[in-house]
Design brief:
Layout lengths: L2 H10 L6 H9 L1 H25 L4 H27 L12 H6 L8 H24 L5 H29 L4 H16 L15
Helix pairs in contact: 1-6, 3-4, 4-7, 6-7, 6-8
């Protein structure tokens, strides 16, 4: 991934991941990997649900089909890493992050589609930023894997923005601003449980 692409992610997001969250992740790598696997599966599910709901949007269908395949491949890769490390995949309570973002989604289309796509872009951008933030602190195998995810996550972010602009018939800066304000609070405010998209959890 080019540094310019990563810089675009940094410029888009309202803040960087708190160092306290990085410390949480390094202290609990098993939960980090389990929740990462859940995130990949949820991302694929979101893409598929958009394909089922908006069957008359060929650009969306093509981009979401590719995204779903990539996310499921990432899910399989995380499971393989966990198996090698003796980490069992199981249920985790979801973080407040995605639900917190979706609270501002408007209820009817086409506004609903615009907002869901903007939320998707923000989630992909934050995932990319967190992979990049974590990678320098991880052992080589996991660092290489997370670094390898950056390019696809950045592309997913751009695809979501493009689709949101198409659905809106123009720029979506006003909606991005609404959701980024929520996002900054969600990733900086102390959280009760560590998750891949949580805020920092106090010691």
């Amino acid at each position: 991934m080019k540094q310019t692409d990563l810089d675009a992610i940094y410029d888009f997001l309202p803040c960087r991941t708190p160092q306290a969250w990085v410390a949480n992740a390094l202290a609990d790598p098993a939960t980090m990997l389990i929740d990462h696997a859940h995130c990949e599966k949820k991302a694929a599910s979101t893409a598929l649900s958009l394909m089922y709901r908006y069957v008359d949007n060929p650009d969306l269908l093509n981009k979401m089909s590719r995204l779903a395949r990539e996310e499921l491949r990432h899910f399989e890769q995380v499971l393989a890493i966990m198996k090698k490390r003796g980490i069992a995949y199981g249920h985790l309570t979801p973080s407040r992050y995605a639900a917190g973002l979706r609270q501002a989604v408007r209820p009817t289309d086409p506004e609903r589609l615009v907002d869901v796509l903007v939320v998707g872009a923000i989630i992909e951008a934050r995932s990319c930023e967190r992979f990049a933030t974590l990678a320098p602190h991880l052992e080589a195998t996991l660092a290489d894997f997370y670094t390898g995810l950056l390019k696809s996550e950045a592309r997913h972010y751009r695809d979501y923005i493009t689709l949101a602009e198409q659905a809106n018939g123009g720029p979506v800066d006003d909606r991005i601003a609404v959701f980024l304000a929520l996002e900054q609070d969600l990733v900086t405010r102390p959280d009760s449980e560590f998750r891949f998209h949580s805020g920092p959890v106090p010691a």
